[in-house]
Fold each of these.
Amino acid sequence: MKIGVIGAATVGWTLATKLADKGHSVQIANSRGVDSLVPRVADAGVPLQAASLEEALNNDLVLLAVPWTKVREVLGQDVDWDGRIIVDATNIFTSYAPDFQIEDLGNDSGSEIVARLAPTARVVKAFNTLPIEKMFAPLPAKELKRVLFVAGDDARAVQDVMSIVEDVGLAPVAIGSLAVAGRQMELQGPFSGLELFRIGREISS
């Protein structure tokens, strides 16, 4: 699959390198431009490509891994999504350590905002409920896989995202729509920070 990753901090970089290592064609972009990524890409050890924002946004699947405060800027680009997939991996922090602040969206949700900003895209929420270090931490037993929750309104898009979740060694579990499950996956929701493991078809905490 042709994948564009927007954001080259810990989440974006980790997912980009893991997906490239599994044979996907992955372009990664950040706000500082291609030249800032070239040395990192050269040392990545996987066939990852540094790209401009415009190039990365025009892949079959775009993984959004930028700070929440940059989402409107990124999705304000003139892009014809034409049913392509956006994976929303963001969390609604407005500031980070040492002063963590969360945006109060009232009756709205981050993924629904993303969907409105890109109305011709198919938006799927994933890769946001666990810190990336925990997401890929060593497993307590070799027969286990760590669960990753997925939410979306388009069944085919959800299945495509579940496939890349499996590619990076996680066990995807689809839990519903953006309006219901997507909200439950947000910061302070019941699925945020919840770590579960799958044993075959069983799930354990």
Amino acid sequence: MSDSAIDPRAGSAPLSASVADFSEVKDWIALLKPRVMTLVVFTGWIGMLLAPGHLHPVLAATAILCIAIAAGAAGAINMWYDRDIDAVMRRTAKRPIPAGRIQPNAALSYGIFLAIASVAVMGLATNWVAGAALAASIAFYVFIYTMWLKRRTPQNIVIGGAAGAFPPVIGWAAVTGHIGIEPLVLFAIVFFWTPPHFWALSLWAHEDYQRAGVPMLPVVAGAKETRRQVMIYTILLAPIGMLPWFLGFAGLAYGLVSAALGLGFLYYAWGVLRDAQDEQGRSLTNDRPARLAFRFSLIHLAALFAMLALERLWFTP
């Protein structure tokens, strides 16, 4: 009788190796910030969908893949640079680099390679206007937001939000070879959506930022001022969200949905502003209104862009 027939541990080594290999793959994927990538890909696709003209399906898929890889590359470089503060924040301490599962230099090389490859393929597959816009989005996220703004000013999210607003512009340029008013309006929607979205999050995650020394608005200006800023930016966002209808490149259905979503976001922002607080402006409800506003903000942006897609696919002759 063979040893494997009587040894219950036989065959366990290959299985353990497979599990370890899969875990390592998951870590390399995690470096790309796949949840952020999903939103980037979606808004980039909407930019392509709304653009006049036609792009071969293979080239369109290539352009979307380049946008996704570029976003992931920026995320990997961000994790490399922020590995020190990630290690002291509870919600990021288990990321691959601070947890010691991926070496910093390997992560940096990975990010740089993917960034260069995504821009090169985008330029060759579509046009160099799209390639340049893609390169600008990576550079803005890495150098302007991550390395310059994030640790220096509470306006990091406001200015840095431009990085996440590039995808519709890139998608439009991939089809047309130029940048028009329509993608800039989509850029503005994402740009003005970013502060109330992230500041709602920061209200209930401010201890992490404080521990890491990141000057997010609640840490520097306090919770009360952050609530006021969430309200101000949501007021600005509501009419901006309706601009596609006002400017005529979206229909009445989008106009009605965007108005309803804008009012919904205002309702949740008002709840954040009026949250029961102590004398220092700290929430007495465990920041429940901020958590609700953060969740609604995700629905708000996704629904706005989804409505643009539905109108184009179903209602355009």
Amino acid sequence: MPDVTKTAAATAPDAVAAPPVDAPAPQDKAEKPRSLWGDAWADLRRNPYFLVSSVLIFFLLLIAAFPGMFTSASPTAGDLVKHYVGKPELGDVGSAGWLGYDIQGRSVYARLIYGTRASIIVGVCVTLIVTVVGGTMGMIAGYFGGWVDAVLSRLTDVFFGIPFLLGAMVVLQAFVERTVWVVVFALAFLGWTQMARVMRGAVITVKQADYVHAAKALGAGTGRILFRHILPNAMAPVIVVATIALGGYISAEATLSYLGLGLASPTVSWGVDISAGVQAIRTSQHILLYPSIMLSLTVLAFIMLGEAVRNALDPKLR
């Protein structure tokens, strides 16, 4: 005769079979695949070059935006009694005499702080202009092709054949007063060709993708295809080139100012101070040394940032 107690316990509705001990725990949610930008940001956060360059660039931008936070001295006020004094005045750190004085008795430290603004403005503004102008022309040429590509490509070749610094010198000679915005115009007038070529090549590659053909088949307009599908996927190489080129534009501004064809006094610039420091290199090396170090660190920071971004956005380098 069967055991009624065991049968009832086995058939009770509250009885639940225990899961096997070795069974894996169920996953609540599948991991969402990351995009190119998500993978790039994950790589950048682990890249020491990106972290160091980002901190340095943030510090430079802070100096350029708020120079009064770092010194109370005037970069243009001089005292001829202190001219060519290079001995640091440790009791005056951050105010005036920390790094000595130049030929006109002006604070070298104050001029370093205020000179950051001119260099950063020139580099950032030129980069934005050449990215917009060159990127637009390259996108139009690469997408439409045909005679549009032929005309824009030949125009790009004409400007690309002009030596960059030599052409900037010629353009700057046409202006009597060479302000920061005049230098920005001269550099941007000849610097957009590289961005146009990079964008054109990227667009030609992206427009062959299946999602672009699918958007055309669904009746999407030209503007929607360009700005919704092609531009976001063609911006990676442009961002890399623009980041690296920014440091080059800062260096170009300093070179033009050093040659006396860029910014000039009373505008405070590292290039102007380097030019003045060369004249006193035998007696007061500090006038040349400190702005040269600041210029080198700034250019190096943007180059390091560009290399880090390039390594993160290029799948072949991972």
Amino acid sequence: MSHPMVLADLVALAVLVFGLFWRRDGRRELVVAYLTVNIGVLGVTLALANSEIGAGLGLGLFGVLSIIRLRSEELAQREVAYYFAALALGLLGGLAITPDWLGFTLMAAVVLAVAVGDHPAVAPRTATQEILLDRAHADPVAMTAHVEELLGLDVRDISVIRLDLADDTTLVRVRYVPGTPRVAAAPTTLTEAAR
């Protein structure tokens, strides 16, 4: 067992969870999940490294851990990235990597990748919402302009979930930058904006 690697894992985990995720997101339930996953993977990896169990079982256990999903709530892709980073740090902390500097470097690279990739200057925060429009839009350009006018926000992406020509409605998933008015302030309700 490499005590410096375990300590490095705990430091990297603290930076990842409390230095990055908590300050940028603040979802308490995910903080608990990230801490638990990391420590669990670290413990399993250390136990497997010090036993006669083959590497195949260890990889199988890691595969099982990596596909666990919370069925009650869908995670955003950035939250999945933090989840994977916590898994990777735990695995790196429990493996006997030689030379030692390589393990430290890989941990630092994981934390740095998340820090840069999730920085607001690199990837501004966006929000996603499903909106039922009161007309059927077959033209994507006109539909985007209509949604931007309704919301008063800069729409980054729009995808049609359901186009109903009989009822003259369109259900869309809209990704937009919150708080960046496009033309005017956002209307208080969609029905008010449709008037």
